[in-house]
Amino acid sequence: MNHDEQHSATNTNSTQNWLRAAVLGANDGVVSVASIVVGVAAATDNPGFILTAGTAGLVAGALSMAVGEYVSVSTQRDTEKALLEKERYELEHMPEQELAELAAIYEGKGLSHETAQKVAQELTDHDAFAAHVEAELKIDPDDLTNPWHAAYASAAAFFSGAIIPLVAIVLPPAGWRIPVTFAAVLVVLIVTGVLSAHVGGANKTKATMRVVAGGIIAMIVTFGIGKIFGVVGI
């Protein structure tokens, strides 16, 4: 595999990871906010209470996803930068050991000792730093993940899913709010289940059933809690 093919494969994997994260974020938004509004709607018919609870859940969830993703990606980025700096230092102060290490990597992949030595030497002569970080660290120093981009994407994915049950619960008449929300969420969960399976290469039927079952169970549980609290008047 040449450099262009490796770069293309890396971009493909990165795209798949982003798509998977987006689908999962949207699914989290759907289930989280649907569970909140269904539970509140089971306890009260007051649309203001339902809208307030759903909006609070949407905003809190989106911010939580954004902050969590920002912290996670920032930590990963800091670690990658530290590894890159360590590699620069080792190449500058221990070039012979690094050359031997690179050759050993290619020898471990099946090349003969002589061929591995030649490949390592040629790559080092061309661009030692790029050759070592690609082979040893599997990091592209020019394509480190931006934590702000990750935070925005995560929040947007959560919001795009969460807005659906919020709209579905407040628009219909009181008697239709919960059935319409269940139906809307069911459709969205089927779509996200199929998409997540497609991105991950998994069995679509099994993946969709898991996603749908989890979401429906969550809404049933919160519906029951809402009914209990609505009856006791708390």
Q: Say how many strands there are.
A: 0
- Any idea what the radius of gyration is? 25 Å
- Give me the strand/helix succession: HHHHHHH
Oligomer: single chain
Main sheet, how many strands, which sense, barrel?
Answer: none
Instruction: Work out the count of structural domains.
Output: 1
Structural class: mainly alpha
Strand composition percent: under 5%
Please report the distance between the alpha carbons of the first and last residues.
65 Å
Mean pLDDT: 84
Helix content: over 70%
Number of helices: 7
Instruction: Tell the overall outline.
Output: elongated
Pick out the low-confidence regions.
1-12
Throw out a few tags for this protein.
234 residues, disordered N terminus, mainly alpha, elongated
